[in-house]
């Protein structure tokens, strides 16, 4: 194990995780034809977005900035 530290937070404490969850819920609503719910989830997800995804996280095994960025593009 490295000499760094580990930050333990709940899933809803990390904007990237909340964004992913809201985007997934928006896609489900979209498939079900619920346009109001779809718009609501996508709007909430995009309001969390500021700058490049996880640009200051460095390399991790848990999060991929590229994957999160492509999810944002899909929501747009």
Automatic annotation (TrEMBL):
List, for all copies, the residue spans of the domain called Bacterial transcriptional activator. 14-60
Q: Which residues cross the membrane?
A: none
Q: Quote the InterPro entries the UniProt record gives.
A: BTAD (IPR005158), TPR-like_helical_dom_sf (IPR011990)
| Gene3D superfamilies (UniProt xref) | Tetratricopeptide repeat domain
Pfam families named in the record = BTAD
Going by the entry's taxonomy, the superkingdom of the source organism is recorded as: Bacteria
Q: Please state what the protein is called.
A: Bacterial transcriptional activator domain-containing protein
> Which organism does this sequence originate in?
Microbispora corallina
